[in-house]
Amino acid sequence: MKSGVTLENFDRSVRPQDDLFGFVNGTWVKNTEMPSDRGRFGSFDKLRESAEAAVHELIEQAAATSAPEGSPKRQVGDLFASFMDTERIEQLGAGALADDLALIDGIASAPDLLRVSGQLTRRGVDGFVDFYSVADAKDSAHNILYVMQAGIGLPDESYYREDDHAELRAKYVEHMTRLLGLAGVDGGQAETVMALETRLAAAHWDRVACRDAVKTYNKLSRAQLEELSPGVDWDAWLDGVGGEARILEPANIEQPSYLTGFAEALRDEPISAWKSWLTWRLVSERAQFLHEAMVDERFDFAGRTLSGIPENKERWKRGVGLVERLIGDAAGQLYVEQHFPPHAKARMEQLVANLVEAYRRDFETLEWMGEETRAKALEKLAAFTPKIGYPKQWKDYSSIAIRADDLIGNIAAATAWEVDRMLSRVGDPIDVDEWFMTPQTVNAYYMPVMNEIVFPAAILQPPFFDVDAEDAVNYGGIGGVIGHEIGHGFDDQGSRYDGDGNLTDWWTEQDRTAFDALAQKLIAQFDQLEPRDAPGNKVNGALTIGENIGDLGGLTIGYKAFQIAQEQTPSPELDGFTGNQRFFIGWAQVWCGKAREAEAKRLLTIDPHSPTDARANVARNLREFAEAFEVSENDGMYLAETDQVRIF
């Protein structure tokens, strides 16, 4: 019988009682050289490389066939070919920007600016706002447009104001100067662009506020939107982006004060400054698709400076990434046909059923949850929709004109198709079968407005899921991930949505207070942690609280589900470990990974997930872990019961 434990990764000089992550992954961490094109690398990345290679092979096969025009094979083959045609790309050089630069050059007023910004958004260049359409959080049966803050080039608003980033800001201006020069435009605009981005960043909400489901729900009528942003000609923007007036009647404005700040900047700053800003948005976005000198300069800042990554990815990998980004479902159809066996889906369905049952049993006995909230929590749990493997209906890209010799045109056409898809469905009933990830994506998600958990085919492989392995490691691996995603339905933000996906307060005041107290305790616990890849820096417990609750709940309920599975098939001792020990080993294997120090620091600022070692070692909150490994008060993983956090 296969255990699913990767023994060669173990560091036997470390005790699991002191550091579960180090025990399970330590030898891998010590002996694995970070790939030169990566800022971090681990279990997720290894699977992503595998999926990437599989998709690459499928694309090459597609490109070698004479598939009908508009078919998935023809489209992925032609799009990839256009990215790999370096001879033509070098021949065109920065001249590929000529038409878009001419649009910007013709701007003479604020309405012109908004119209051209919308036009460039249709072509794949972000402007002063980002947007998407999905179920209205207070009318989850219908789609609404969500509008978000944008307009800055550094990773986060804090990069524009914190002293720690002063040196980086200077390097950013130098990078702008060089890249604009390579594009054949005046690099002296960099200081102007930086000043304008700094002003926009001052109006941005921070990342903790942006993850607040209640604060970011601001459903406004068109009249209210115009009152919020005086002087912003929304009709001009709609004309550029190709949207009907109805899409803003109403819309959800996630950060309202940002639009007020933008409106003030639009009134105060000269059109020449805004033209420089939009020119930079264009050049910065397009550089990765232009001649080699521009690609290298962009990577030098975005990769080396921001994340400490020595080398850019091989061109074929970047080409696969572009196909995934623009027409991912077309590649997904090809991937599923060859890489997702039906019996894997059947076993996953059983795992999900046991996780849901474990949550049900848990909710029925939670001491801090009162009867009124408990009943509604059970209703929400019963309404969960699991999606496994791949969608029932694939997106149809056949109307997109993709040519093997027109990379920029392909990007523009595919982006316009997606913009039209998003805008056209505003106000329509939601598509309950829609997926927001492709099946070849190594990840999973919970969608609160649809109350669904989704597990793409590509994550259903070792170390997450081994269809041939015994239960313990599978429940610790993919079981913990399933539990994590279900847990998002009841974390500090997901718990604000009911079983139908509507943003409504279904908790009693007493139960919300009890939950918040536990969440604050977990925040304080993570605030004290330093990632091993960036010692001397602390985790932001408030930023990561949702994912930490997901991890803690996923591990706790995953263990309960494992016990349910053992009611039918008890787990034997294998590889010198009991079933219960292998469960926790399976959890820690999932988080095997390492990061360059620069990337680790960047992620502490922007990533709502904790570092991998902290995620693995969240097990110290479980008395079941202490019992499985006989943890004592002298051990590194020991937490007194009064200090342990147990939400579910």
TrEMBL record:
A single Gene Ontology CC annotation of this entry is:
plasma membrane
Among Pfam families, the record links this protein to: Peptidase_M13, Peptidase_M13_N
Question: Ranges for the Peptidase M13 N-terminal domain?
Answer: 16-391
Q: Which domain of life is it from?
A: Bacteria
One GO MF term: metal ion binding
Q: Which Gene3D superfamilies match?
A: Collagenase (Catalytic Domain) (3.40.390.10), Neutral endopeptidase , domain2 (1.10.1380.10)
Q: Which family does it belong to?
A: Belongs to the peptidase M13 family.
By what name is this protein known?
A: Putative endopeptidase
Q: Where are its TM segments located?
A: none
Coiled-coil regions listed in the entry: none
Tell me the ranges covered by the Peptidase M13 C-terminal domain, including all copies: 443-644
Q: What cofactor requirement does the entry state?
A: Zn(2+)
Organism equals: Rudaeicoccus suwonensis
- CDD domains (UniProt xref): M13 (cd08662)
